[in-house]
Amino acid sequence: MFQRLSEDPLLEECLDGEELLNGMIWEGVPKGTFIGSVALQLGVHGAVVHFNIGCQAGLNILIETGIEPGVFCVSALKKAHNLRKSKANYK
Q1: CA-CA distance, 17 to 21, in Å (whole number)?
Q2: What whole-number distance in Å separates Cα of residue 28 and Cα of residue 24?
Q3: Does residue 58 contact residue 51 with C-beta atoms inside 8 Å?
Q4: Which residues are CB-contacts of 28 (< 8 A; sequence separation ≥ 6)?
Q5: How far is Cα 19 from Cα 47, in angstroms, rounded to an integer?
Q6: Could you tell me the residue ranges of all domains in the chain?
Q7: What's the whole-model pTM score?
Q8: What is the structure's pLDDT at 11?
Q9: Which residues of the chain have pLDDT under 50?
Q10: How far apart are CA 50 and CA 11, in angstroms?
Q11: Long-range CB contacts (within 8 A, 24+) of 33-40
């Protein structure tokens, strides 16, 4: 299993994912504005969760912090999730 996971074609695909994750991080945490380390860490964690789970991560975070998401919030996140899926399928 380890040898299969360390084959060059698979690792090259992971580099593409790293590029996408890097873009998601800097989309949420702009380079041109100074922010503290806590804000940077939150931005990185948010991007990683969004990268791994998708828009459902936003709902999970709200629910875990005790905030009940409203109908419009759920609807917007579902639309964003479906758009993300359709873009991924297109690519």
Answers
A1: 6
A2: 6
A3: no
A4: 43, 46, 47
A5: 12
A6: 1-53, 54-91
A7: 0.58
A8: 57
A9: none
A10: 21
A11: none
